[in-house]
Every structure is written in structure tokens, then in C-alpha cells.
Amino acid sequence: MFKKFMKFFSIIAIVLCFTSCEKASFKENTNEDNNEKIQVIVTFNPLKEFAMAIGKDKIEVKTLVPEGTEPHDFEPKIKDLKQIHNCKVFIYNGLNMESWLKKCKDSIDNKDIIFVDSSKNIDAIKINNSYDPHIWLSLLNAKIQANNIKEALIKVDSKNKDFYEKNYKDFSNNVDDLYNDYKEKFNTVENKKFVTGHAAFGYFCRDFGLEQNSIEDVFSSGEPSANKMKELIDYCKQNKIKTIFLEDMVSPKVSETLAKEVGAKTVKIYTIESKEDNKNYIESMKDNLEKVYKSLKK
């Protein structure tokens, strides 16, 4: 009888121990839930770069537009709308880069989401009846976009304001160092003209007093006409263009044809719309600046 009692007691002890461990585990998980990361959705890669630079381990970022897809060509699906509905902060480029945005907003009934227009306070370049949306390819604009993101994160998570402010300051200092370095370099070159496959570098040029000529316009309207091609060939010859820059999301065929016609080489340049060569924003922009600078040096 005593042995049976002890066996029963042992079973009860094990069950109580297991239950206690489960409760401890539940409390631990509950604590993790209370400290869970802020859910952030961005439309495409450069905004993710800025958000991660400011939010770091306090946030979890998901990119809405798949790699290799143009943000203005994207159409959100039901699963995308569900993701947006459950996030705290939704960051978009602005300037009609996301032409589908209004329809998307109208489909979301979560009024607590903070929608961040990263183009707020940027001096946009007007093109006909629209604006050039490629603002992130300017170092000066990147600071403004990052600041807009920082302000949104502080609004959601004010207790970590100092953390976000410090990260923004670090990012801003890195951008300033890169800008000042190449501002000085570009001031030393006489030729300020370069040629790209896609006219995405208007703000980049404005930062450094440069001039781009491109095969496709700002909105990637397709291959150039015969007349446009002749103009580009003449432009390259007159301005001694020895490099034609290629971008990942633009067909290289016409650029390669142009380069062959004028005796130039083709070189890759980053638009940063997708993650390229595993480089972060600063690394990609430094690579772009160095390549353009080398192409302009005598």
C-alpha cells in the first residue's frame, strides 16, 4: 500500500512540475509578446534600408513589392492587404511611385496604421504633369526620407525616442561624409555629363551638379525611336562619353548597342529598387558615385 501511495505521489509531483514549467514558459512567452518588435511594411528596398538603419532590432520589416518588380507596376493581392492591415507602420515612397496606393488604403479598415509618405518635405523635380519619384538616389533626400521614418517610429514607440534619434544621427553622419567626399571630387571634373539606360538619376545629378542623358525616360517608356537613338549617338560623340551605365531592371540590349556605336564600355549602376550584390544603401551609393566619378575623370 505504501509503495502504491509513493508511486501515486511521484506521478502527482511530476504533473505539478510539468504544469509549473508550462506556466513559467507561458509567462516567458507573454513577456516576449509584450516586447515584440514593431511590425513595419515598406513598399520596396530603399525604404527598408532606411527603416532598418533607424529601427534596427526594435522593428521587423517586410517588403511588399517582390524583388525584381517595378514598384509602379505592382498590384497588391489579398494576402498583401492582410499584411498591411496587421502592421503598425506602412512606409511608401510617394510622388506616385506607388500608383496603386489609394486603392490599397481604401481597402484597409485599420485606422491605427501610421502611413508614412517618405517624400514629405522633399523638393521634387517636376516632369510634365508629374514628378520624378526616384528621390532615394539623392543622398540629401535620403536624410529627409530617413527623418520621416524616424518621426513615425517615435510616434509609435516614444519610450525609445533616444534610440531612434541616435540611429538617425549615425545614418545622417555617414551620408554627410559620403556626400562631402564626392562633392569635392565632382568639383574637380570639367565634364559633368554621363549616360544611363533609365533616367533615374535626376536627384543624384542635382546633388552634385551633373547632367544625365538616358535611353529610357523617367517612367521607363520603352525602347527609343530611331531619331532618339541618333541623338544619343551624337550626344555621346560630342561629349566624349566612354561609359554607358546599365541598371538591373532595364533591358541592356539598347545600351549595349549604343556603347558599341560610340566605342564606349558598359558599366553596372545601382538603382537600389531591389537588393543588389548584397550591398546596403551607403555601399550602393558609394559604388555609384565612384563609378560615375571615374567615368568623368580625364
Automatic annotation (TrEMBL):
InterPro entries associated with the record: AdhesinB (IPR006129), Bact_metal-bind_prot9 (IPR050492), Lipoprotein_PsaA-like (IPR006128), ZnuA-like (IPR006127)
Gene designation per UniProt: znuA
Signal sequence residues: 1-24
Classification via PANTHER family: HIGH-AFFINITY ZINC UPTAKE SYSTEM PROTEIN ZNUA, HIGH-AFFINITY ZINC UPTAKE SYSTEM PROTEIN ZNUA-RELATED
Name of the protein: High-affinity zinc uptake system binding-protein ZnuA
Alphabetic keyword roster: Signal, Transport
Gene Ontology terms for molecular function: metal ion binding
Similarity annotation: Belongs to the bacterial solute-binding protein 9 family.
Gene3D superfamilies registered for this protein in UniProt: Nitrogenase molybdenum iron protein domain
Any GO BP: metal ion transport
